[in-house]
Amino acid sequence: MEELSKHKSILVSEIINFLEIKKDGNYLDGTFGGGGHSRAILERLGPKGHLYALDRDPTAIRFAKTLKSKNFHFFPLSYLEVEDLEKQFDGAILDLGFSTDQLYSSGRGFSHTKTDELLDLRYDANGGQSAWQFLNQASVSQIEKVFREYSEDRYAKHLASKITASRREKAIKTVGDFVEIIGTSEPAVLSRLFQGLRIQVNDELDHLKFGLREIKKCLKVGGVLAVISFHSIEDRIVKNFMKEQMKVVTKKPVTPTLQEIQVNPSSRSAKLRVSINL
Ligand SMILES: C[S@@+](CC[C@H](N)C(=O)[O-])C[C@H]1O[C@@H](n2cnc3c(N)ncnc32)[C@H](O)[C@@H]1O
After folding, report:
1. Whether the CB of 37 sits within 6 Å of ligand 1
2. pLDDT tens-digit profile of 44-53?
3. DSSP string, 102-122
4. Cβ-Cβ contacts under 8 Å for 159 (sequence gap 6 or more)
5. Which of 148, 253, 255, 265 would staple 156 via disulfide (CB 3.0–4.6 Å)?
6. pLDDT tens per residue across span 158-215
7. Is 97 in the pocket of ligand 1 (CB under 6 A)?
8. Is the CB of 30 under 6 A from ligand 1?
């Protein structure tokens, strides 16, 4: 049976308005997730239009299979690899971070409440180092850097020392092991620390910095780029890239309405920036 995504897509009508979709255009959804934005784009394409969707998490294919259109094409790739498609787009979107499906049902430790899960945190569990491997192998200064720069936590040094002291006694494996060492159940603190580890193991900032450059190369002149980010580190990268390399459409980021936040609290920190390729 087909599995439907539990992810609630954010700022959908705003994105659709900015894209000004041409019926016979070529579009890119660089972060497919549960496919909500893809669905909204596909509904507006005519028989000659095409939508190409990418996701670094190969398990997203189960949701891609529910979009039954010959104009829709899914590839389990990072948007960093967009040039491999050899296409030119009229518009591209990125909706950064992770989806509700990854948070609650991936089994990869994205939620600090799933204490029995392995603390993996990779989008693609087939490559690279998991978060628990990183925490067991990295030096105290590497761990401190992650919590200071990617979690923006002022106790980064103290937390890194706690981790390296504790792992001498017992290796860190599960979400529960990590939460116990940190010694708090405060969701804001844990979300911040999980964010830092996620950025580290997925090399998210490099994918974003270099990925924006690759996507721009694949945009037609006049092509629209729309990016939703969820924390200040990502938003700064997007803002600077657009200011330096493209024509900015949104002088200030567009944020969800109070109504959207009420229906979908996880949209509260979303910031949408839009620009045009010159
Ligand atoms: C917030 S979700 C996208 C939700 C989607 N817009 C929707 O409406 O259902 C972000 C998705 O981006 C994927 N992702 C993260 N980094 C990526 C990258 N570098 N390239 C492609 N996909 C990525 C994640 O695996 C996740 O599925």
Report:
1. yes
2. 999 999 999 9
3. HHHHSSSS-STT-TTSB----
4. 143, 144, 147, 153, 182, 193
5. 148
6. 999 999 999 999 999 999 999 999 999 999 999 999 999 999 999 999 999 999 999 9
7. yes
8. yes
Expressed in angstroms and rounded, the spacing between residue 22 Cα and the centre of ligand 1 is: 24
pTM (two decimals): 0.96
Instruction: Determine the atom of ligand 1 nearest the C-alpha atom of 230.
Output: 1
List, for residues 225-267, the tens digit of each pLDDT value.
Answer: 999 999 999 999 999 999 999 999 999 999 999 999 999 999 9
Is 50 touching ligand 1 by the criterion CB < 6 Å? no
- For the record, the structure tokens of 83 come out as 């040039």
Say yes or no: CB of residue 207 within 6 Å of ligand 1: yes
How many other CB atoms are found less than 10 A from the CB of residue 86?
Answer: 7
Domains in the chain and their CATH numbers?
12-95+205-276 (3.40.50.150), 104-202 (1.10.150.170)
Amino acid occupying residue 72: F
- In the chain, helix, strand, coil percent, each to 5? 45, 15, 40
231 CA to centre of ligand 1 in angstroms: 15
* Angle, vertex CA 185, rays to CA 236 and CA 256, nearest 5: 40
Burial degree of 189 (CB within 10 A; 0-12, 13-18, 19+) = middle
* CB distance 35 to ligand 1 below 6 Å: yes
